[in-house]
Specification:
The protein is of the alpha+beta class. The protein has one domain. The protein contains 2 helices and 8 strands, in the order H-E-E-E-E-H-E-E-E-E. The protein has an 8-stranded antiparallel β-sheet, with helices on one face. It starts with 14 loop residues before the first helix and ends with a strand.
């Protein structure tokens, strides 16, 4: 059985609701209004210690379709423990969850200097 998330699901959430939810549940992250990109429409949040950056990619209607949390390796163990507690393991560095009949995937990708946690809806 696929687990139900214990954390907020930002996928499908409107950008204004993401801002409000992040402020309430993740107050150490501040929005970076200076981030601009002509290719992707997104919200960018940075933690106060610059150890993590959270991007929320948006549709033309300002709904989130994918999130990407980039973090320093000093946070890896805590983040993996959090993923293991929140979602069902679906293989090495992969998790899955079900919400309102929709399946979502969470993947951890290890880069040279940082790791990334990507969340998206099953296509």
């Amino acid at each position: 059985m696929i687990s139900q998330p214990k954390a907020p699901n930002y996928i499908g959430m409107h950008k204004d609701d993401i801002k409000e939810t992040m402020q309430k549940l993740n107050p150490r992250f501040e929005i970076d209004e200076g981030a601009k990109n002509d290719t992707y429409k997104y919200l960018k949040f940075v933690d106060k210690y610059n150890e993590e950056t959270w991007l929320f990619f948006l549709t033309v209607d300002d709904a989130c379709f994918k999130s990407k949390l980039m973090s320093d390796y000093s946070n890896l163990k805590n983040r993996v423990d959090e993923l293991d507690k929140t979602y069902k393991n679906a293989g090495e560095d992969k998790w899955v969850y079900l919400e309102k009949g929709v399946t979502y995937f969470v993947e951890l990708k290890k880069e040279e200097w940082f790791f990334t946690i990507v969340t998206y809806k099953k296509k």
